[in-house]
Design goal:
Structural class: mainly beta
Order of helices and strands: HEEEEEEHEEEE
Number of strands: 10
Strand order of the largest sheet: 4-5-10-9-6
Distance between the termini: 29 Å
Shape: globular
Length: 128
C-alpha cells in the first residue's frame, strides 16, 4: 500500500506543476520542514500549526524528494466526524518546505485528517 501511495504521488508530480524554487508561498499554505512545527490541514482544510509533529524526508528519485509530516492539531481546530482525505484539487492550498536555501512549493500531496486530531500529509517536491 505504501509503495502504491508513493507511485501515485510520483505520477501526480509529473502531471502537475509541483515546484517553484526560491518562491515565497502565498497564504495559506501547509508547511512540512525539518526543525519547525508543521502546518497541517484541519477538518475544514485550513492550515493549523501542530502542537507536536514528526517530519521525515526521503529522496524517492533523482531530483525528487518526499516530505511526510504527522502531527497533533491544536485545541480548537476543526475535527471531522470521519477521516477525510485531501489533495490540492480539493483545497487549492500548496504544500511548502525549505530545502537548503530554497523554498519549494508543491501541488502534489495527499493529506488525511482524523477525528482524534491527528493530521498527516505527504508532499512530493521536484528539485531543480
Amino acid at each position: 500500500m505504501k509503495k502504491l501511495s508513493i507511485v501515485s504521488l510520483l505520477i501526480v508530480v509529473f502531471s502537475v506543476t509541483a515546484v517553484a524554487a526560491n518562491a515565497k508561498p502565498s497564504a495559506p499554505f501547509y508547511l512540512v520542514s525539518m526543525g519547525q512545527p508543521c502546518r497541517l490541514p484541519d477538518g475544514a482544510a485550513r492550515p493549523q500549526e501542530t502542537t507536536e509533529s514528526k517530519v521525515q524526508t526521503t529522496d524517492v528519485a533523482e531530483n525528487i524528494v518526499q516530505v511526510n509530516c504527522v502531527g497533533a492539531l491544536p485545541p480548537g481546530a476543526v475535527l471531522p466526524r470521519y477521516p477525510i482525505k485531501l489533495t490540492y484539487y480539493e483545497t487549492k492550498i500548496p504544500c511548502v518546505t525549505r530545502y537548503g536555501e530554497d523554498t519549494l512549493l508543491s501541488q502534489a500531496y495527499a493529506a488525511t485528517v482524523l477525528p482524534n486530531g491527528t493530521s498527516e500529509i505527504s508532499c512530493v517536491f521536484h528539485i531543480h
